[in-house]
Amino acid sequence: MDAWVVALALPTPQIWHLPPAPERNRSGLTSEPSPARSEIAGHFVHIDDGRFHERGRYWSNASDVHATTRLVAGSGDRYQHLLLYAHGGLNSPEDSARRIAAMKETFKRNAIYPYHFMYDTGILEELKDVILRRQANIAARAGALSDQTDRLLERSTRVPGRALWREMKGGARRPFLPQQAGTEALSIWMTELAREKNTKLRVHLCGHSSGAILLAYLLDALDDVAPSLRIASCTLFAPAATIDLFETHYFPYLISEPAALGIEQMQVFNLTDRLERADTVAKIYRKSLLYLVSRAFEELVPEAILGLQSDMDELLQKPKMSMIVDRFTVHYSDGSPDAATQSTRHGGFDNDVATMNSLLRTILGREPAPEDAFTQQILDY
Questions:
Q1: What strands, in cross-sheet order, belong to the sheet with 266-271?
Q2: Rounded distance between C-alpha atoms, residue 215 and residue 283, angstroms
């Protein structure tokens, strides 16, 4: 039952006078292209250009946030954890909605209330177009796909790709500027939780790909609205954030004083370099998106990226990282069946059972009960 309807004891679709969610087939997929808003109501805020996205299928506004926070804060001991989750900026709202719908019940069975930041960048199709429009020309110049075609693609997509990536990063930052929707949503959450004295939710962060960029700026806003909050855990999947952004926006909270905003534990889930090089972008660029970002889309290239193994290895060798050795962990997917993560591609971490159950273990501090863990059927929504 959603937080929206805790007090009313009715399924969400009935509250909204809508038919129940469509039945799923054996693979877990629904017959509809994306979930109805009622299926994920109370579990997301949708932000566009820093403002609440108040129209369309997945609308949001401040009143919507207030309604959710009041019900969660007043739900007694139903929840012990609040998870603030940031999807990658290349996801469409419909893609994000599918992931929210797939995850939410498993989180809630584990006393975790998931709340997702859905933000519009509108660059996915443009980025695909940038790459696809250059395919024929590059193939004619270099022949079959190879490292040479990758280098040509990096050079030919640099100007338009850099502009699109700059816009994506701006879309992740703007919500958390003063008086913008992300900052307002956080302020509402923190104010309501502080008002309800019986609510002792531990706060956790999770971000996938460019969601790591959004969370960096979310931390800035939290420093203003909840300056003494201790974040129990921060988990990043294949972060597209630069090493520099980690050092300026994450590291200070890993070494902060106990009475200040801080991160108690942080972990990063990455592909090995072998798997990064086995991944593709649009089946044309023969490496992962993070390689293309590092070598073509950042302002200065190549740029060190937190999600790339070689760059992470260099970061871990810096003397200051010894200050957080007991609070910062990196997990690599290398194909091992018993690894903490078994994703084989950049976009696959939030579909990977091992990764998502690792996230559960981190939040809970224990193994989830088998009946409460993620399964492939759940994640294949």
A1: 51-52, 44-48, 112-120, 81-86, 202-208, 233-237, 266-271, 328-333
A2: 29
3-class state of residue 85 by DSSP: strand
Kindly give, in sequence order, each residue whose CB lies less than 8 Å from that of residue 16, ignoring residues fewer than 6 positions away: 37, 38, 41
pLDDT band at 145 (very low <50, low <70, confident <90, very high): low
Residue with the larger pLDDT of the pair 229 and 89:
229
CB contact at 8 A, 151 and 69: no
Q: What is the pTM of this model?
A: 0.89
Tokens 């990096």 locate to: 154
State yes or no: pLDDT of 229 exceeds 70. yes
- Cβ 260 vs Cβ 123: under 8 Å: no
Looking at the chain, the number of H-run helices and the number of E-run strands are 17, 10
204 alpha carbon, distance to own chain's centre: 12
Annotated domain spans of the chain = 3-379
Contact 374, 353 (CB under 8 A): yes
Whole-number Cα distances in Å, 268 to 240, 333, 369: 11, 11, 24
Q: Is 27 exposed, middle or buried (0-12, 13-18, 19+ CB in 10 A)?
A: exposed
Cα(193)–Cα(179) distance, rounded to whole angstroms?
A: 20
Both tokens of 332, joined, read 């690599």
Which of 244, 248, 188 lies closest to 219 in space, CA to CA? 248
Mean per-residue pLDDT, 108-136: 78
Q: From start to end of 53-201, where are the E strands?
A: 81-86, 112-120
Fill in the DSSP letter of residue 61.
-
Q: Which amino acid is at 175?
A: P
- Give the position of tokens 């072998």: 274
What region, left, alpha or beta, does residue 109 occupy, with left being phi > 0 and alpha being psi -120 to 50 degrees?
alpha
- In total, the chain counts a number of residues equal to 381
pLDDT digits (tens, 9 = 90+) for 286-307: 999 999 999 999 999 999 999 9
Give the contacts of 192 (CB within 8 A, at least 6 positions apart): 66, 69, 70, 72, 73
